[in-house]
Amino acid sequence: MANQASPPPRALDGVRIIDLTWLQVGPQATRILASFGAQVIRVEWRKRGAIDFLRYFQPFAPDHATPGGGRVQGAARSQGVRGNYDRGAYFNNTNPGKYGVTLNLNHPKGRDLLKRMVRDANALCENFSPGQMDKWGLGYAELRKVNPQLIYLQTTGMGKAGVYPDYVSYGPTAQAFSGLTFLSGLPDQPQPAGWGYSYLDHSPGYFGAMLLMAALRRQRADGIGAYIDMSQTETGLMLTGTSLIEHQLTGKPTERYGNRMPYRDWSPHGAYRCAGDDNWIAVAIQSDAQWRALVEEMGSPAWARDGELATAAGRKHHEDELEAKLTEFTVAQDRYDLMNRLQARAIPAGVVQRAADRFDRDPQLKARGYFVALPHSTIGTWPIEGFPAKLSASPADVGGLTGRAAPQLGEDNDFIYHELFGLSTDELAALRAEDVI
Amino acid sequence: LITDGNLRGSLKNLVIVEAGDQLGDYAALLLAGLGAQVIKIEPAGGSPSRAIGPFASATPDPEASIFFWRYNLNKQSVTLDLDHPAGFGTLKRILAKADIFLLAGEFPVVARRLEQSHQIVEENPRLIRCAITPFGLDGPYRDLKATDLTQMALGGIMAVCGYDPGKDGKYDTPPIAPAMWHSCHIAGEYAAIAMMAALNFRDLSGAGQLVDVAVHEAINTCTEIAMPTYIYNGETVLRQTARHAMPAVTQMRLSTTADHVYMLASLSPFEREERAFVELADQLGIEHVLRTPEYAELEKQDRRAALTYRNDLIEQVVASRPAQEIFEKAQALGLAWSPIRRPEDNLEDRHFAARGSFATIHHPELNRDIRYPGTVATDGQAPHMHYSRRAPRLGEHTDTVLEWAGFTRAEITSMRHQRVI
């Protein structure tokens, strides 16, 4: 060690997390902790019913990662290779920087081993269906006997406290219940557009990381642990903006408003079709000056010089016609070229970027080093999404302590059980023989 | 022994000085919920978020912005003109007693304040500075103009949210930015995380640092399978009505309850869910052939027809009862179904009442209480986050804070006379 350069400073140096999470909402929190240098030990079991669904959910990694990371050019479309638990691409993106062990919690010796690990850990995180840990005798009350300073983060759809403690939820369930789904979409469509992904599998993970870090500071200072009963749905309420307050004041039902801005006289304010297949640009005009600049950019057509449109109130009043006319202009424009021209006139405009645009083209993400190439022991090196902030003294590093993307199932059994927790090779062999690890 | 695991007040010794626009409101609000003292520095006309509606008044009024109310609970307001020659000197004395200086807004303004505060860091090396800007402090986009809408576009969320394409596979509706300022939410949550990380690091090292949060990157992290589906398989996911964007358009649809509420009612590929659904249909007395030899035969002959039959049956089941009844019956059988509620439908829900999810905040000017979303977690008994004070009126705490920072009455009077405060 003496000859090696000192490791980079880490905000969560010396912190150990026992990570029983799966799918997205739980692993999101521990992913962040790992990127700040916590030792995150992902505990999984290899039986089909117990295994993280994301390990065998599409997209799958293909077999042709380049040495530098990513797909071979020309091998653009690939269904990936199915067939084992180490090819889940989304899993790989969700679990970088973590150690991976297998442990059978249906076996009493497995539960004993977990308690042994918990004794020497700062925190445990889980997002099983409500009640699962209690069935194993591993609920907070039990584990606190083992480690009185333990921080226990439990994430469930509704939250354990309350009248729906056992209700089950995926991200979309919580989004529907909280009101987030309703709020997204066009006012003239009967159905909401909702969210094209599980937003509430992301945000509660962010909150989990935030609360864990608050609890870790207190644990360090005062020796106090915490039980954190995180509710995905409650998190959703936190994100309903001004709607709840406005409703209480006016008594009117909340309505959705599409891409428009009902709370300021901003218009046009929306996504407008550009040249090409399903290409769009978002434009947000916030002032008369920006409107005049847009008119100039369009070549000052007669309709746009109409005096009624010179004021914010007038534009708001004629918003439907205005948007239709603006689309007649944008539909012939290249989306990026138009964005650059509008931005050159200080008009807020942005291409509606698909993943391909963000990955292949976005110069900002490239310049900031957003994607980080990390190796996976089975599928090779792939670009992993980074942490969206630069910290000058203790930078985040999604490769964490492992310097890898996600772990293979049980990849670190020897390191964690033998080197870290001191089990002998004979003990490990016996546990393997008994299907405990 | 250990009796109090609640995190309320866990940041009570922390002082955050916040300046800038709406990008910073929510990040500081979250830490205020854990007990941090947040001092909001505002120009004489009020911070930009006071101009964001809706308003509780007939015309826009900086004291009646519901947006400002919602995102500034528990905070203190100090009017201070940072562009006045004496303004930053005043701020310096406040920051000498602060832990975090949170700066939010467009790059040029934030960059100027960072430059100004450089000397402060030399005097108070424990100070953590956190900048939240649309694209970060460097890179070719750093000067671009941005709003919530354009950030949701460039960041990738809009491309995956919207309505189904037509039968020809072409979209006749635009991508949708889900409403309510999620660029501020996502970036604010990450900023809160990054500040907590910097605090943890300071506990270990004694050193502050500069945290550079890019809203653009924050949104990019929040699009789920869209990015890996492209990176690994070169495929683009398609936006679809109220369900996940996937490489192909999926079959699932929304159902309507007897009381005309849309219901998210779908079955995952797991067999236990189909079994639970059959039990639900049986409980409700709805005839069907699911899980009979007849259905097995249909599945074998025509998988698509079988799926359509099953989806039709889901619609029939959902249509047979009001939303709350379907919700509770389905959940009792382990189905992750939910009505698509308006946010306010939750104000009277017993569950959130029992958890203390809403904070009741008194508004003396209105002579009434308003309930605000108040926590994301409990300790099993009580919420971990705690809000008790309405957002401050403009400059409400100027004198209090300046006195706390060590200014004399004479100094305060003089600054007021010179329009520094």
> Count the strands of chain A?
12
Number of helices of chain A: 18
Beta-strand residue percentage of chain B: 5-15%
Largest sheet composition of chain B: 6 strands, parallel
The average pLDDT score of chain B comes to 96
Mean pLDDT of chain A: 94
The gross shape of chain B turns out to be: elongated
| Biggest sheet details of chain A | 6 strands, parallel
**What is the CA-based Rg of chain B, rounded?**
26 Å
Termini separation of chain B (Å)? 48 Å
> Which chains make the largest contact?
A-B, 164 and 150 residues
**Estimated helix fraction of chain B:** 25-40%
How many whole angstroms does the radius of gyration of chain A measure? 26 Å
- Biggest sheet: strand arrangement of chain A: 3-2-1-4-5-6
Percentage of residues in helical conformation of chain A? 25-40%
Structural class of chain B: alpha/beta
Give a structural overview:
The complex is a heterodimer of chains A (437) and B (421). Chain A is an alpha/beta fold and 437 residues long. Helices cover 36% and strands 13% of the residues of chain A. Chain A has helices at 25-35, 89-94, 108-119, 132-135, 140-146, 171-178, 180-183, 199-222, 232-238, 243-250, 288-297, 312-317, 319-330, 335-344, 355-360, 363-367, 413-420, 425-433, and strands spanning 16-19, 39-44, 99-102, 123-126, 151-156, 226-231, 269-273, 280-284, 349-351, 371-376, 380-385, 389-391. Chain A has a six-stranded parallel sheet, sandwiched between helices. In chain A, α1 (25-35) crosses α8, α6 (171-178) crosses α9 (232-238) and α8 (199-222) packs across α9. The longest helix of chain A has 24 residues, at 199-222. The radius of gyration of chain A is 26 Å and the shape is elongated. With 421 residues, chain B is of the alpha/beta class. The radius of gyration of chain B is 26 Å and the shape is elongated. Chain B starts with 14 loop residues before the first strand and ends with a helix. In chain B, α1 packs across α7 and α11 (293-301) crosses α12 (303-319). Chain B is built from 16 helices and 14 strands. The chains are: A alpha/beta (437), B alpha/beta (421).
